[in-house]
Amino acid sequence: MDSGYHLMELPTKVLIGEGVISKLGDFVKESAGDSRVVIASGSNVTSKVRRAVDSALRQEAVWVEVAAADTVNVDRVMSSASGSGCIIGVGGGKSVDVGKLAAFRLNLPFYSVPTSASHDGISSPFASLKGLDRPYSIMAKPPVGILADIDVIASAPRRLLASGCGDLVSKLTAVKDWQLAHRVTGEYYGSYAASLALMSADVVLRGSRVLGKFGKDSVRDLVEALISTGVAAGIAGSSRPCSGSEHLFSHYVDILAPDSGLHGEKCGIGTIMMAKLHGVDWRRVRSALRNVGAPVKASQIGVDDAVVIESLVKASSIRPDRYTILSRRKLNRKSAAALARSTGVI
Ligand SMILES: [Zn+2]
User: Fold this and answer.
1) What is the value of pTM for the model shown?
2) 310: CA distance to ligand 1 center in Å?
3) Is the sign of the CA dihedral 54, 56, 58, 64 positive or negative?
């Protein structure tokens, strides 16, 4: 922060455990009272979860199905929300991001009810949407409350859980980039927020074999680690501890190949390569991702070699204000291809 101070915004309460979805009505009552609530939900939310939410709420609920994480859907949620006490995002990434930004713009409390653990947006103050003026996350507010039902999340497809692991390991290189930026540009660096983010990466790096079985205890660890990275961003007052060069790479792949892979999958693959650039143990990152069943090759998520190379070369241009290892190393096509080949990504 330029001015020597920054604001920390954190989630106020987290309810986590098996079967806690039945407590949603009481959980949101503090903010919503008896006013109606608007629910931004993903298209993949099962009818079982819908019924559980409806029977848990004491308040009238208006469901808005979010088809895409874009500004059109933010507007749809906003126009349904007048007179509501709060907005609840029920689902995976899209509905949480859309609900979060709609609530931020209307100055309403936002509750996050993740049905999967595929990325750290479930707790962070950021929303990642298409149709904004930039291809990376924007600052909103963190959810007031997060209700994470482990029964619901553990029954999500394994691919989503593995993607969440990819977003967690990415904190390793995000923190390296943050430290580098601090040394080179004098940018604010918070060692506490950095340590917190690294602890979340360690949940995957140290425990990948057990984690990859995705038993209930492991899913709980995964969800708590994801929530914690959102808190690390809140403490830092920026996405620095959670998002570095590996996220820039992922965002650039999104531009060139919009429907390829999940956010956490692309960030995990990016982390393997950025770890090598930073001179840290990239093989450890790769084997941890393999152990949890996350992709380690671009072809596994339908991304071809040319997209990987172009994304490596151009990723830093989408956010020039964010100094990372890609600002320092300035890859050309040849060195980018060498990096991707040497790490087995292509
Ligand atoms: Zn992420």
Assistant:
1) 0.94
2) 20
3) negative
Mean pLDDT of the chain: 93
What would the pLDDT profile of 237-295 be if each residue is shown by its tens digit?
Answer: 999 999 999 999 999 999 999 889 999 999 999 999 999 999 999 999 999 999 999 99
Distance 137 CA to ligand 1 centre (A): 9
Give the Cα separation of 255 and 272 in Å (integer).
Answer: 20
Residue 268 Cα to ligand 1 midpoint, Å, equals 9
What is the rounded distance in angstroms from the CA atom of residue 267 to the CA atom of residue 140?
21
What distance in angstroms lies between residue 87's CA and the mean position of ligand 1's atoms? 22
250 CA to centre of ligand 1 in angstroms: 9
Cα(242) to ligand 1 centroid in Å equals: 7
DSSP-derived letter for residue 306 is H
pLDDT for 259 equals 86
Q: Please compute the mean of the pLDDT values over residues 317-338 and round it to a whole number.
A: 96
